[in-house]
Amino acid sequence: MAMAASISNSTNITYSRRYHHHLTSSIKPSQLPFQFKIFKSTSSSIQNPSFRVSASMSIEATQKAPQVSFLVRKESGVLHFVKYHGLGNDFILVDNRDSVEPKVTPDQAVKLCDRNFGVGADGVIFAMPGINGTDYTMRIFNSDGSEPEMCGNGVRCFARFIADLDDTQGKQSFTIHTGAGLIVPEIQDDGKVKVDMGQPVLRALDVPTKLPANKDQAVVKAGLEIDGATWNVTCVSMGNPHCVTFSTSECKNLLVDDLNLSEIGPKFEHHEVFPARTNTEFVQVYSRSHLKMRVWERGAGATLACGTGACAVVVAAVLEGLSERNCTVDLPGGPLEIEWREEDNHIYMTGPAEISLSGGSGLKVATWESCWCDVVCLTQQFLRVENPQRGPLISLENTRLCVLIHKSII
Which HAMAP family match (predicted)? Predict the structure, then answer.
């Protein structure tokens, strides 16, 4: 279930057609008092000890205005967003089509991605005007503020975001300019997104890696020493660098669930043989058409899925003679279908992209004022937020209320 939210705003911000419709029609005065049907749930109360609410309100009744609550936003600038995920790899999507510059800075992206004090995500993606004849440009800030060239799960979410913004249905495709070049996603009739990821880059200097090439200028099943162990690695670029390993000198087939990714992952990412750092995929072979991987992403750490990583895994498996060119790749968040076609040397990735929630965030993230709440009660006539130490924080009747709620607590 996708949750919706909007924030009152007095600035002259130009919204997209979809957001304008959302802001002007989602909550109408004629629907007051507060209509719980907005949240598509029949629950009348919610209890969650770690539930965080950020809200703004405007009083519709003709009465003396109350003292301004500390919950009311002090800044008028609002960043509207929709959060999507591809197999659990989640992103904050921003409609940036009216500007060639991202609407938030890398530092602000870090705060937005914080899962305790922000919205929470693996990255922020901006839908920007196309260049060089493309329909759109995609830029990404990782949760650490770095900017990757591309993201496979992110581009699937990007495609769904564009379709939702334009309110279009059925099969459709887009051309997207990325730091890794031209990417062409196609939304299928079943709602999944198939993406032409282009050709893999194998030349060691272009990945880039300082490991010496050992097969036609590529690094295939080469030894890499980390913590006294020799890992057999194959290096692939999908527009961003990947180091793929299926084995060590002592273990011929990794049991990926036994690995401590938070310990070993950073040692691969920051190894001196990867001048631009690297994403690392640890892979277990089930069969020649079925692989399982875990990933440590450059700039994001351990994630539930990585689309470019799954593509790199199939390329590496083919090069090492471990798989066919068409494989199911299991990730912690679910499976992706990957095909490396011989006729055009392109890799095609197919998987889901789903909406999690939509809402608004202050552009100056550090100036938000909010509270930790222990009890939240929603009914058709009022919202009440309580804190055991302070009693009622807000109790609103006959108001116009905008609130952001994550679907997982409903």
Answer: DAP_epimerase (MF_00197)
Judgement on whether residues 276 and 164 belong to the same structural domain of the protein: no
Lowest mean pLDDT among 29-38, 71-80, 245-254: 29-38
DSSP codes of every residue in 66-121: PPPPTTS-S---EEEEEEEEETTEEEEEEE-TT-SS-SS-HHHHHHHH-TTTSS--
What values do phi and psi take at 31, rounded to 5?
A: -90, -5
Q: Is the same domain home to 22 and 157? A: yes
- In which domain, by residue range, is 399 found? 17-197+355-409
**What is the reported pLDDT for 226?**
96
Q: Are residues 214 and 180 in the same domain?
A: no
| pLDDT for the residue numbered 358 | 87
- Distance between CA atoms of residues 219 and 82, nearest Å: 40
Quote the pTM value: 0.69
Residues 218 and 336 in one domain: yes
**Within a domain: residue 350?**
no
Nearest to 281 by CA among 302, 300, 299: 302
Lay out the sheet containing 391-397: strands in order across.
45-53, 371-378, 382-387, 391-397
Catalytic residue annotation: 151, 306
Q: Judge whether residue 395 has pLDDT over 60.
A: no
Residue 151 belongs to domain with CATH number: 3.10.310.10
Residues 180 and 256 occupy one common structural domain: no
Last residue of one domain, picked from the residues 319, 345, 371: 345
In this structure, the answer to whether residues 156 and 68 fall within a common structural domain is yes
Q: Among candidates 403, 390, 367, which has minimal Cα distance to 26?
A: 403
Indicate whether 364 pLDDT > 60. no
State how far the Cα of 379 lies from the Cα of 90, in Å rounded to an integer.
30
CA distances from 343 to 336, 339, 346, 355 (A): 21, 12, 8, 34
For residue range 45-75, what is the model confidence (pLDDT) as tens digits? Answer: 333 333 333 333 333 334 444 443 322 333 4
For residue 391, which phi and psi values (nearest 5 degrees)? 75, -160
Q: Name residues whose C-beta falls within 8 Å of residue 252's C-beta, 6 or more positions apart in sequence.
A: none
Tell me: the pLDDT tens digits for 115-174? 999 999 999 999 999 999 999 999 999 999 999 999 999 999 999 999 999 988 899 999
| Domain membership flag for residue 59 | yes
- Given a cut of 60, whether residue 198 has pLDDT beyond it is yes
